[in-house]
Amino acid sequence: MNATNLRTIQGPLPTRRGFRVFQCCFAAFVTVVCSPWVQGQSVDSTGPVVRSVVIRGNSVTQPRVIFREMALRPGIPVTPEAVEHDKERIYNLQIFNRVDIEVQEFGDSADVHVAVDERWYVYPFPVLGLRNRDPKKIFYGIGVTHQNLAGLNQKLFFEAATGYDQWVQLSYRNPRFLGEEDVYFEGQVNYAHLHPLSQDGAEFQQVQSVQKISLGKRFGYYRTLVGTIGTEYWEAPNGPAQRIASSSGHDYFITSLLWFIDDQRDVREYAMEGSFLSLWIAKDGFGESAMNITRVGADLRKYLPIAGDWSVAGRFYTRLTTGGVVPSYRHIFLGYDERIRGSFLTVREGEHQFGGNMELRIPLLSPRYYESSFIPVRQFAVLRHGLYGAIFIDAGKVFYRNRSFIDAPLYVGAGAGLHWILPYGIIVRTEAGVDFQGREELILDFGASF
């Protein structure tokens, strides 16, 4: 659950010197993002032609899941670029620890051998936490996830908790819902009774119930279009009107979303080359309730290799809101999903958001594999690991609609750190950041920053 459980006072505006530094970094960011984007793999007709493709190691995963990601098929010329492309695409399924492709040539033809090491797919896990860091407000529960249901890369997730906060959540995802067609399906339901904090720091009760279904279509290897329709119910029994759009204290409305993704990153868990584009528009309320807002968002990323194996990564993102009253559960934050390293734990709230990030990623230990002969379970015996150094700068604005973009404060942070590549796609970031008021902090976080 993405519980709202921490707020701190916003700091002063960045200094002029900090703003000038941001301007320079923004210019560099534009240079990175506007460079030519990675396109689909071209075919070199001079290589040997694929005669057959053989897959081994997939004791659970169906072969069609792997074939779906491959450009190398019978009759297609083999090139080093195509081999690397297919390795990355198969690994990006995030259900294998290792993917190797070997090509055996026979004159002007070749056999392609794909070897995979599967991950462990079923995980029970505990749920335990404190609301607002209060030891008297404990919640606890259990969850389970299956990451490769039926060997078809289907995802099943269940989580339930009780105590001070209570919720139950169930979701199912099928990337190939209609047989051989690249049609995506996802369904999710959840119910929650939570105690978030309001803008003034006061705790209040909130009840929510959400049901959604999504259908999507993948075009080629990189692009996907997804449509979502659902209903949402929100209630704040003891909250003022701004926590809910309706004066009755509860909102029940239809919600919809249209989402386009173009994902050409080399390795999704920690990209060094490629690009990512996400554009979406959402509508909440169609006249059936007081809820009536439209939200749009964009996320643009570019990963550009430079000297040696180094890479510079740039990102721009925005979220905008228009329409009627925006209740607190539709507010946008800096300090949860999006953060400014240097004021990592500071939470800032609004209805519009603009931000950007830049990172210089330096391989200190390029990703490699350790295979243990002492671990009897193969899914835990092949371990991918690596280490990167990084230098970063983050900047962002979040503000309400009654304030202009120019007047809204700009928050900037910068620093450096180590990014640890661990098995099963786990990324651990240990970083030191500073904001432009000179306040320093140490950061421990999981997953790539973008």
So what's the overall shape? globular
Q: Calculate the terminal CA-CA distance, rounded to whole Å.
A: 21 Å
How many domains? 3
* Amount of beta strand: over 45%
Radius of gyration: 24 Å
Return the structural class. Answer: mainly beta
Largest beta sheet: strand ordering: 4-5-6-7-8-9-10-11-12-13-14-17-18-19-20-21
Q: Describe the main β-sheet briefly.
A: 16 strands, antiparallel
**Low-pLDDT windows of residues:** 1-19, 37-43
How helical, in percent, are the residues?
Answer: under 10%
Count every helix, treating DSSP H or I runs of 4 or more residues as helices: 3
Mean pLDDT reading = 90
Q: How many strands appear in the DSSP assignment?
A: 21
H and E string: HEHHEEEEEEEEEEEEEEEEEEEE
Task: Walk me through the structure.
This protein has 450 residues and is mainly beta. The protein folds into three domains: 7-40 and 305-450, no CATH class; 49-118, membrane protein fhac (Ubiquitin-like (UB roll), Roll), CATH 3.10.20; 121-263, no CATH class. It is 8% helix and 52% strand. The protein has helices spanning 16-33, 63-67, 80-91; strands at residues 49-56, 96-106, 109-118, 122-130, 138-149, 154-163, 166-174, 183-194, 206-219, 223-235, 250-263, 274-284, 293-305, 311-323, 332-334, 348-350, 352-371, 382-399, 411-422, 426-435, 440-446. The protein has a 16-stranded antiparallel beta sheet with strand order 4-5-6-7-8-9-10-11-12-13-14-17-18-19-20-21. A three-stranded mixed beta sheet has the order 1-3-2, covered by helices on one side. It has a two-stranded antiparallel ribbon with strand order 15-16. A hairpin with a 3-residue loop joins β9 (206-219) and β10. The relative contact order is 0.12. Residues 1-19 and 37-43 have low confidence and may be disordered.
